[in-house]
Design goal:
Layout: H1 2-14, E1 16-20, E2 24-29, E3 36-43, E4 50-54, E5 59-62, E6 68-70, E7 76-79, E8 82-84, H2 88-96, E9 102-106, H3 119-128, E10 130-136, E11 139-142, E12 146-149, E13 154-158, E14 163-170, E15 178-184, H4 187-194, E16 200-202, H5 203-211, E17 224-226, H6 242-255, E18 262-269, H7 273-285, E19 290-293, H8 298-306
Helix pairs in contact: 1-8, 2-3, 2-6, 6-7
């Protein structure tokens, strides 16, 4: 087991940047705006990162912390007054598959929700194929603990030889209750254990959300909906703990806004989009708690020889 773990770390540190091999597209309605949009995913050169083009507004928005304009019930990116809402599921699919560089053309204000998870998006990206590029990735390696905390939640990053995410949630609800999940993130685990988990919400909140211009496109086809004591979807849940897995899915998308994989153990307690973004900002200002690594250091070479 230690040998496999270290081998995965070295793979992460040494692997080349990636994009997709060919253009693919998808379309559908936005969860919150209810607006229809078509999205085209296109290969991008190395060192590009993830870049959105609002082709209906002739605007470019680079995915990054500085572009976050709103975190109420979804992560919204914007630049110069132009916005793209609910980017987290698509960002999670790209990050979960290790796709570093991508052009995303979209003709509307919100990424289509599809089935409320990232599983269709993973399939679309795999259909496009993954292409290696002639430059190594960098990763942000946690070297000392760093934490963000507010009145409602807490996010902590700890040194760890790998990419581990833990989430702890607690709801005063018969179905949700207390759930926790921990995963050592890689492409296979993400696609099988995290990507299929759908967004969820409460029927009692729907009227209030719609009065505020949210959840306009929400339905039983693209979200798990709960009343006071049960799941309303006829198909039931995909996992008994689908809710906490979706929280991790959202976090994978939000954390990708730092611009590179994070090597460490990130522990999240009741966090959402706002806390995830505040945590990343706290992390980047805590320069004594991380280092950016590209090449394999001498210690890692020793481990490689050992394994």
């Amino acid at each position: 087991m230690p040998g496999m773990l270290f081998a995965h770390i070295l793979f992460l540190m040494m692997r080349l940047q990636r994009t997709i091999r060919k253009e693919v597209f998808f379309h559908g309605i936005g969860l919150h705006t209810g607006r229809y949009a078509t999205v085209k995913l296109k290969p991008a050169p190395r060192d590009t990162g993830i870049v959105f083009f609002r082709i209906d507004r002739d605007a470019i928005i680079r995915a990054g912390l500085n572009a976050v304009t709103d975190t109420a019930f979804a992560t919204t990116l914007g630049y110069d007054g132009v916005k793209i809402k609910t980017v987290e599921h698509l960002l999670a699919a790209a990050a979960g598959l290790g796709i570093d560089n991508l052009f995303i053309d979209i003709d509307g204000p919100e990424v289509p929700v599809l089935d409320g998870s990232s599983t269709e998006l993973v399939g679309i990206l795999l259909e496009a194929g993954i292409a290696k590029q002639a430059k190594k990735i960098s990763c942000l390696k946690i070297t000392a603990p760093v934490a963000y905390e507010d009145a409602h939640c807490r996010v902590v990053a700890l040194p760890y030889n790998g990419r581990r995410l833990s989430y702890f949630m607690s709801f005063n609800h018969k179905v949700l209750g207390n759930q926790d999940f921990t995963i050592d993130l890689n492409e296979t685990n993400f696609a099988a254990q995290i990507a299929p988990a759908r967004t969820f919400g409460f029927l009692k909140d729907l009227e209030r959300l719609r009065a505020n211009g949210l959840a306009m496109g929400g339905s039983l086809d693209n979200a798990v909906v709960l009343d006071d004591d049960r799941v309303l979807n006829a198909s039931g849940l995909r996992f008994s703990d689908e809710f906490v897995r979706h929280k991790i899915l959202d976090a994978v998308g939000d954390l990708s806004l730092v611009g590179m994989p994070i090597e460490g153990h990130i522990v999240m307690e009741k966090s959402g989009h706002s806390a995830n973004v505040h945590f990343l900002k706290k992390l980047l200002t805590s320069t004594e708690c991380y280092q950016v690594v590209t090449e394999v250091d001498q210690y890692s070479r020793q481990v490689l020889n050992y394994t």
